[in-house]
Amino acid sequence: MDYAELKNKVIRPKKRLAEGTEPELSSDGELRAQPRGTVKRTKKSAKYDTKQSSNKTQNISTSQNHNETKNRIEPGSVPQADSEAQSLGIEITNREAIHTLANRKPVVSVLRVLSEQRLAASFRRRPEGDREGLGGKAVEGEDTFPFDWLGAGREEPGQRSQYSDWLRAGREEPRQRSQYSDWLLAGRNTVFIQGAAATPVPLVKAMTAVAKEARLKDIKVCHIHTEGPAPYSHKDYEGIFRTYSFFIGANVRKGIAEGHADSVPIFLSQIPSLFHKKIFQPSISLIQVSAPDRHGFCSLGTSVDCVPAALMHSKTIIAQVNEKMPRTFGDTVIHQSQIDYAVELDCPIVQHERKAPSEAEKEIGKLIAENLVEDGATLQMGIGSIPDAVLSALKGHKHLGIHSEMFSDGVVDLVKCGAITNSEKSMHKGKIIGSFLMGSQKLYDFVHDNPSIEMLAVDHVNDTDIISKQTKMTAINSCISVDLSGQVNADSIGTRMYSGFGGQLDFIYGAAIAADKKGKPIIALESTTKTGESKIVPYLKEGAGVVTTRGHVRYVVTEHGIADLFGKSLQQRSYALINIAHPKHREALTKAAFERFKVMPSP
User: Which InterPro entries would you find in this protein's record (predicted)?
Assistant: First the structure.
């Protein structure tokens, strides 16, 4: 059955419910309109059952009685619709109504939310009792909420995020209706997708299905790394979508290599500027958030990065509301009135289980931990076997801190054993600072409702000035290859784009200019590939990109040792790099160094 037939089987109103009514599931399986205030909502089981969300079971009082309402919502063939929707990765049941967070009225299915023509103006209406600005006018009957505290804020004056006010404030007036008001998704739209573990996969699949069914053209899709399928980047959708990836994930790598999608080389710290400068202007943003608390605030959960900047400039925001999304503090809180359409779909957050490091990776971790990481250091590292190996080797350290664009499970173990306390950080003392995170359920449980962790926008976290002010800033990054002059390739394999700049140079440079003169920028890699080729090379492959220049590089670490390249000549640094290459490649590298630099490598 195709999408056109499927969309007629999912739950949607036969007639709009009368004002003041809400849906109720009856014993015969039908959704009936009942007077608002007579229906008790039964909370579904969820991973994160907070006290705030228990308020969803409260009755909603109204001044009018509509007991004689005859309107009905016919559920159609729900089991069949579920089966067919499953192929699109979308959960649809007659108990999971789709509605705006603003006034909780039933809307059409997630498929039709993206394609419905002539949506009623009431679905865009600002919620009654919405708060005005930060100080806010509380909803009648509720206690005034301390907005300035929400999200944990900043300890230091002047360090408040530029996004805090916008994310927390209730919308003071409805969004301006754009030329796309009748079609939420239309040709020549720009769609931003939240990334990493927070990728709203059901919304992405629905967007793809809608665009193909409606034969839309020239839709621009932009995002950092996303999880799940990305069919919009494939050949079959050429002409419908054009993808612009700010950091390449495995799901778009093939499309980019074949020319059906594109990448934007950019430092992670600068991605928000793409929205502020209107280089990318999202018509629609697709995000995933936690359920709202009793004050109407949702959380962006595991991924903040450039999301606040994208949302600030979006015409329409569509959110997957997921009870299993952990609630995090920082720039993550977003008031429900900022969201135009919401889809309640509870599903597991994408997980990345830790892989056991190889013997070479264990040795790299040990070398870095024993020689380059001091007690009281502030750490930045990414995801993968080498960062995990480093973290595993740090359990004997004291007073470590975290200031990193992302972190994973290894941080949890160091907090639990007392190695990470964040007590000697010069900024954000006592806090783990990140911008997005990925890992196992253990990590998500750890960060949920944890005030010792702040997830901040990436133009704050990756600001080189802020990085440079961290105590003993130690930045640990990996790469694909390093040439004998010290050029670091981390984004491509020859001419084939593989990943992106990410935050590597942001932190390498920030650590290099550390205010306390104790920063350590580190590049770590195994000495050989899986096929035995050397990763220390005479020249980078033709077309390979330089992410960290030979002028920025300092420490390079393999399982065979540490090379400190700072202040060294080409002759000296080629010698140092050859000495940490795999022994079987050292002779060939020495000959290549002589041919390139016309002198023999020497200390």
Answer: AcetylCoA_hyd_C, AcetylCoA_hyd_C_sf, ActCoA_hydro, ActCoA_hydro_N, NagB/RpiA_transferase-like
| Eight-class DSSP state of 436 | E
The count of residues in the chain is 603
SS3 string, 530-578, reads CCCCECEECCCCCCCCCCECCCCCCEEEECCEEEECCCCCHHHHHHHHH
Map out the domains of the chain as residue ranges.
1-89, 107-117+171-350, 359-597
Residue found by looking up tokens 């330089």 in the block: 546
Q: Look at 168 and 209; give whichever has higher pLDDT.
A: 209
The first and second tokens of residue 94, run together, are 């007659």
Amino acid 121 reads A
Please give the backbone phi and psi of residue 197, each rounded to the nearest 5 degrees, phi first.
-65, -20
Out of 84, 116, 363, 405, pick the active-site residue: 405
* pLDDT, tens only, 515-550: 999 999 999 999 999 999 999 999 999 999 999 999
Task: Report pLDDT digits (tens) over 173-187.
Answer: 544 433 333 346 777
What pTM, to 2 d.p., does this model score?
A: 0.76
Measured distance CA(126)–CA(159) in Å, rounded: 31
Condensed to tens digits (0 to 9), the pLDDT of residues 122-154 reads 223 233 333 232 222 323 333 222 222 222 233
Q: What token pair was written down for 174? A: 């409805």
First to last CA, the chain: 70
453-455 sheet: strands from edge to edge: 329-330, 453-455, 432-434
Report the C-alpha gap between 46 and 26 in whole angstroms: 23
- How does strand 21-25 pair with strand 31-35? antiparallel
> Do the domains 107-117+171-350 and 359-597 sit in the same CATH topology, yes or no?
yes
Contact 198, 299 (CB under 8 A): no
| 213 flagged as catalytic | no
Enter the tokens of residue 376. Answer: 């009281």
Q: Taking a C-beta distance cutoff of 8 angstroms, is the pair 427, 447 a contact?
A: no
Lowest mean pLDDT of 6-10, 557-561, 589-593, name the range.
6-10
Q: List the structure tokens of 77.
A: 């063939």
* Pair 354, 502: CB distance under 8 Å: no
CA dihedral (546, 248, 310, 52) positive or negative: negative
CA distance 183 to 78: 26
Query: Which among 204, 196, 264, 195 has a CA at the least distance from the CA of 231?
Result: 204
The Cα 295–Cα 292 span in angstroms is 7
- Output the six-digit token pair for 131: 């708060």
Strands 432-434 and 453-455: parallel
pLDDT at residue 275 is higher than 90: yes
From 539, 528, 534, 538, select the one nearest 591 (Cα to Cα): 538
Name the CATH superfamily, with its identifier, for domain 107-117+171-350: Glutaconate Coenzyme A-transferase (3.40.1080.10)
The CATH fold assigned to 359-597 is: Glutaconate Coenzyme A-transferase (3.40.1080)
Tell me phi and psi for residue 596, to 5 degrees.
-80, -45
Residues 6+ apart with CB under 8 A from 193: 199, 200, 204, 221, 222, 223, 226, 285, 286
Q: Strand 316-321 vs strand 297-299: parallel, antiparallel, or unpaired?
A: unpaired
Two structure tokens written together for 507: 């932190």
Q: What does the mean pLDDT of the chain come to? A: 78
The three-point CA angle 140-142-147 to 5° equals 110
Two tokens, residue 18: 């009368």
Q: Report residue 133: phi and psi, to 5°.
A: 80, -175
CA distances from 485 to 226, 477, 551 (A): 34, 18, 10
